[in-house]
Hints:
By secondary structure, this protein is an alpha+beta fold. 33% of the residues lie in helices and 19% in strands. The two termini are 42 Å apart.
Amino acid sequence: xxxxxxxxxxxxxxxxxxxxxxxxxxxxxxxxxxxxxxxxxxxxxxxxxxxxxxxxxxxxxxxxxxxxxxxxxxxxxxxxxxxxxxxxxxxxxxxxxxxxxxxxxxxxxxxxxxxxxxxxxxxxxxxxxxxxxxxxxxxxxxxxxxxxxxxxxxxxxxxxxxxxxxxxxxxxxxxxxxxxxxxxxxxxxxxxxxxxxxxxxxxxxxxxxxxxxxxxxxxxxxxxxxxxxxxxxxxxxxxxxxxxxxxxxxxxxxxxxxxxxxxxxxxxxxxxxxxxxxxxxxxxxxxxxxxxxxxxxxxxxxxxxxxxxxxxxxxxxxxxxxxxxxxxxxxxxxxxxxxxxxxxxxxxxxxxxxxxxxxxxxxxxxxxxxxxxxxxxxxxxxxxxxxxxxxx
Length: 392
């Protein structure tokens, strides 16, 4: 530490300021605030989640409260309305808070209420991105990425790389509710260090797709039989420069999509079986995390999770404890999928390629297939029966 430039004391040049209070905006402030709030919650009987440290759970008999916060934004819910009101009163006595009522806007996410569930969207945020890119009047397009597009690092450099990085960063946040953008955004995100004109044209195509689907969002509907179902897929040697595979997964809870991803694998796979098996291992890890979270929320489904994959060799490798010579080079940590299957904690099954919903995260698809998968993942326009929410 040292004295700030322009305010160096001539009498005590080697002294520094002593911090007596954690002020808003300092590096220490978030940690101090978290410690202050979490200590108060624990004193009331809440327990901090091990799966997510920003989540706190209170359970007494059949009454449950869930509280999650991001900096100074808090979401509180529970199954007992009077208990929720009592807790808000106690929280207001300890901290100066503003109760905004029923949730309808949180960190750019818009929440609309349906008779059978909720609808999440980012329409305003998407509109702001289009306005920033000056593409509000652009012509919409049906898919975010052409099936014939293969982005490489070759090409004429783009003149405004900062603008490119800003737009791609904004699109990354938009994928919170717009999973149909995940693969396309993943592709353009790989060239942030040195974008070319072709890369910017791909970003403009994504924005044209957003323009035509600006009101789209993700639906979460009530279900009578909760279960965990995952889809895992990989496109072997997808990257023509590095020959690394692209993998993706989608995980459903009671028929509602709760996790998804589109990423490039960190190493080169020697076969499609290896790339698919590695994708299964990553998906299984996410399913385990979800199971831990649901157990802490006291809503863990009784049945074992199911993981679907369209590669029969990878399914065989996950179910057969006998090591095959072609799998000797695969890292040991990926073989924990076998242990999960053998212990009965995970069930792996084969699924037909045309029913592999994770395919949308590994490659650009033709329009009919893309729209079919997008619909099955419950991404679409707002239902016509949206009910009015409360204050935000």
